[in-house]
Amino acid sequence: MALSPRLDLRQSQSLVMTPQLQQAIKLLALSNLEIETFVADALDSNPLLEAGELRAGAEAPATPDGETPPDPPTADELIGRGQGEADAPLDIDPTALDRDRDTGDWSAASGSGPLGDDLPSDYADRDAGAPTLVQHLEAQLGAVKGDPQLLFLARHLIGLLDEAGYLATPLEEVATDLGVPRIRVEQALAAVQSLDPTGVGARNLAECLTLQAKEADRHDPCMAALLANLDLVARGAFPQLMRLCRVDEEDFADMLRELRRYDPKPGLRFGRAEAMAVVPDILIAPAADGWDIALNPASLPRLVVNRPYALELRSCRDKAVKSWLSEKLADANWLIKALDQRQKTILKVTAEIVRQQEGFFRKGVSLLKPLTLRQVADAIGMHESTVSRVTSAKYLQCHRGLFELKFFFTSGVASADGEGTASASAVKAAIRSLCDAESPDAILSDDTLVDLLKEKGFDLARRTVAKYREAIGIGSSVQRRRQKKIARVA
What we know:
Distance between the termini: 93 Å
Number of helices: 22
Structural class: alpha+beta
Largest sheet: 4 strands, mixed
Strand content: 5-15%
Mean pLDDT: 77
Order of helices and strands: HHEHHHHHHHHHHHEEEHHHHHEEEEHHHH
Strand order of the largest sheet: 3-2-5-6
Radius of gyration: 32 Å
C-alpha cells in the first residue's frame, strides 16, 4: 500500500463550551466569599457595571438596541442536544427567571422571605474585637522590666507559640538562629511564662500544669511527683501514684481535683488571627405549611447596568467605541443573569434537600436518611455534577445550627428489619447516646453496643461499630472505664 497525502471530509458531533458557559459553571461552585471577589474584579474591569441596591421593581436585561433577549435553554438541555456552544450560563429552567436584571432586583427576588432580616448580627463579627494570644501577651510586655534585647527575645518567643500557648521550638535552636547565648533565651522564656494566662510558654503539658500549680501555691513535693507521672494518671494507676506521692486516698483525691481545675491549653481561650466566621448562604425556618427557604441577602452580590453611562456612550459615532460598548453591555447583562441563575439553582437544590431530609429538620440527626447526589439530581431534573457544584462550600442555617450542604449527603447502613437503610450520621448519634448514658460500673463493650444498636434497628458488625465510635472521638471500653474512674476519684 502506497503512502501519499490526501484530503478527507468527515462529519462528527462534539460538545463545545463557550468561555461564558465555562465561567457560569465555575460561578456555581464558588463560595460567597469567592463570589464577592469575582464581582469586585468584574466591577473594576467593566465600567457599565455598578453595585446596586435591593429594590422591588425589575426590568429585563438591556441590549444595545433596547430589546429584551430571549431566555436561553438550560445547560443540561444544551448538552442533550449537543449545543454546548450556546450561552446558557447555568443548569436551570430559564422560564423561572425574573425578567428585570438591569436594576439588580434579581437578588431581591431570590433573597426575599421572612428570613431576610433574621440573620444574627454576630455572624461577621463573631470574633471581632477579641484579642489574639499574641496581642494579649505583647500588651503585657510593656510592664516587664528589662533591657531591649530581653524584650526582643520575649517577643520572638511569643511569635513562636502555637495556638494552645506551647513553645515547640527548642531553646538551643532559637539561640542559634538569633546568635545569642542560651541563658538569654531562658531569661526571655521566664519573662513570657510570667505573663497571663498562666501556663503559656510551656514546652510540654507537665510544665504547663506546673506553672499553674505554682501560681496557685500548690506545687509541693507531692504535687510535683504527680505532675512528673502524668502518664500514670492517664492510665488510672492510682495505687502506684499514691505510693509515689506518699499520700493517702483522701489527699490524692484532693490533688486530682486540683489538677482538673488547671487549663492544659491556656492559649485557646483567646481569639485566633486566622479565625473567620462562616456566613450561611441559605436560611431556613419552620412555616405553617412547611419550610421557609431563602437566600441570605447579606451574601448576595448586587449588580446593575449603569444606564446613563451606556446611553451617553451610545451617542458616540465611533465604530470602535460602539463595538466596545456592545461587548461590555453584553458581558454585564450576562453576568447579572448568570448570578441570578446561580441563586435560583441553589434554592432549587436546597428545597429538594429539605424535602428529602425533612425528618432531620423536625426531629434531629437520628432521622437523617442516606442521600446521594444522584437522588437529588434525578428529582429536580439536573445533572449530578450540577448538584455537586451547588453543594460545594455552601452553608445552611436552620434552628438546629449551621451545616454545610454536603452534610446532608451520607452513606447508609442496613437496617435490622431489612426494609431500608439508615444514615451513618444517625448511627453515630445512637452510639454517642448509648456511651453517654452508660454507667461507670457497666461500661459498654463494642459487642454490647452491637446488640443495643440492633434493638434500635441498626444491623452492624462489631468492627463497623468500632470504626464509627472512633470516628466521633469515643474511646474503647477500657479507656472509658479509666476516664470514669478518674472522674469518680476526683
